[in-house]
Amino acid sequence: MSSTDTHSGGQHATAEVVIAEVVARQIEAMILDGRLGAGERLPAERTLCRSLKVSRNTLREALKDLRGRGVIQTRRGSGTFVAGLQMLQVQPSTALQNLLQNHPQTLAGLIEVRRLLEGEAAYQAARRAGDEDLQALQRAYREVVAPPSPGDSSAARAQRDIRFHRAIYSAAHNPILLLALNAIRDLMMSFIFDTTDRLYTRPGAWRQLRTQHRRIYRAIEKRDAPAARRAAGAHIDAVAEALNRRPEH
């Protein structure tokens, strides 16, 4: 092989790599703008090649890059999927999390951030939710408003609460909101567990939480974005009041 052939082959390989990187960014854009959701299966290779106008080899290089960075996962016999939220989440270090938990002012800051996120998520969910989003939200809503069963733990109730709010974030079709929720989820859950008597077992607390969740859900279901934002804000304000209330002896 001549030096000219070697040079031309190297240029071709470099061009293929560059094209694969562009394709990887295009797929990432599909995830970021909600066309592909967390945990969703990617279209078949043939469909992707046609829509992205690339060869199968280029597409496979792009998928290899995304897989290596944890953006997608391949399940044998099932296909390739966008990584679930547990893989995409931005998680603070344990040291930072412990530091934040040991400072009282953290709760106030956390509530402020959550109020902003919850209000925006509910607002956008009312505007953007599709039929599948509404079905998922309805399932989560029915779980969170179901009467507590004997032996039901506060931790289990808190998990159902988180699932309901995650369904709202998902229906908003803004993956940055989902990442933000996951970034503060563990911190928020630690506060909820630490104050479980005030938030979940206080007389009348469950009925109040059920009413708040119902108002959020109904507003999203009716596509009333301003009402959804108000209901979400009122819910977070009520949670903040419960968390700040001194335990009764």
Q: In CATH, what is the homologous superfamily of the largest domain?
A: GntR ligand-binding domain-like
* Biggest β-sheet description: 2 strands, antiparallel
Could you give the count of β-strands? 2
3D shape: elongated
**Strand residue content:** under 5%
* Sequence stretches where pLDDT stays below 50 over 5 or more residues: 5-10, 85-97
The number of domains is: 2
Helix content, binned percent: over 70%
Name of the level-1 CATH class of the largest domain: Mainly Alpha
N-to-C SSE string, H for helix and E for strand: HHHEEHHHHHHHHH
Give the integer mean of the pLDDT values. Answer: 79
Strand numbers in spatial order across the main sheet: 1-2
Number of helices: 12
* Radius of gyration from the alpha-carbon trace, in angstroms: 23 Å
Write the CATH fold name of the largest domain. Four Helix Bundle (Hemerythrin (Met), subunit A)
C-alpha termini separation:
87 Å
Mind telling me which CATH architecture of the largest domain this is? Up-down Bundle
Structural class: mainly alpha
